[in-house]
Amino acid sequence: MEKALMKVSSLKAGGFWISSKAKEEFTNITQDISYVSNAVEEKAKWVFNKLKGKPVKTLPDLLREYNLPPGLFPQNITCYEFDATKAKLIVYFPSTCEVIFSDNSVIRYATRVKGILVRGKLTGIEGMKTKVLVWVKVTSVAVEGYKSDKVWFTAGVKKSRPKDAYEMPHDAVRVQEF
């Protein structure tokens, strides 16, 4: 009798292990499908805008036009949306990633970064972190003038970094978590 009860409880434990592993796999598959769906939707919007005759600027060109360094975002983005009437910028990435810049600063990007883009500033940022001693959410990035050689990052405190470190878009490295 004891052996039978022991066998039943080990099956339950095994069944729990199998079901938790299956749940984890389903979650991963769901996230992958969601990413593919979002990427397809964004590419479709890009194609329709192109067919309508709306010229699509590269993200570095858009940033340069707004007096921000063109390398603020990595070059391997999926796509971006910019609504000039609301000044809303959304940048999409294939996965969470990070870039180590030439000044040894590190910025981590979520799969979607949102912010308000105005001349010389990207404010209200969601989806961007920088490493100080720990990872800290970046809330704004600003350049104080056309001739300025500094980029100001607000991540809890306002800190300047050399603008030339962000002049060229870099390749991002995929990371597991934002």
3D structure, described in words:
- There is one protein chain.
- The protein is an alpha+beta fold and 178 residues long.
- It has two helices and ten strands.
- The protein has helices spanning 2-52, 59-65, and strands at residues 79-83, 88-92, 97-100, 106-118, 121-131, 135-137, 140-142, 150-155, 157-162, 173-174.
- Strands 1, 2, 3, 4, 5, 6, 7, 8, 9 and 10 form a ten-stranded antiparallel β-sheet that branches.
- It starts with a helix and ends with a strand.
- Mean pLDDT is 83; it is low at 3-11.
Fold topology:
Blueprint: H1 2-52, H2 59-65, E1 79-83, E2 88-92, E3 97-100, E4 106-118, E5 121-131, E6 135-137, E7 140-142, E8 150-155, E9 157-162, E10 173-174
Antiparallel strand pairs: 1-2, 2-4, 3-4, 3-10, 4-5, 5-6, 5-7, 7-8, 8-9
Question: Can you describe this structure in just a few lines?
Answer:
The protein is α+β, with helices and mostly antiparallel strands and about 180 residues long.
Shape: globular
Number of strands: 10
Proportion of helical residues: 25-40%
Beta-strand proportion: 25-35%
- What is the radius of gyration? 22 Å
Question: What summary fits the major beta sheet?
Answer: 10 strands, antiparallel
Poorly predicted regions are 3-11
What structural class results from the helix and strand content? alpha+beta
Task: Spell the H/E element sequence.
Answer: HHEEEEEEEEEE
Q: Helical stretch count?
A: 2
Entry keywords:
10 strands, single chain, 178 residues, alpha+beta, 2 helices, 33% helix, 10-stranded antiparallel beta sheet
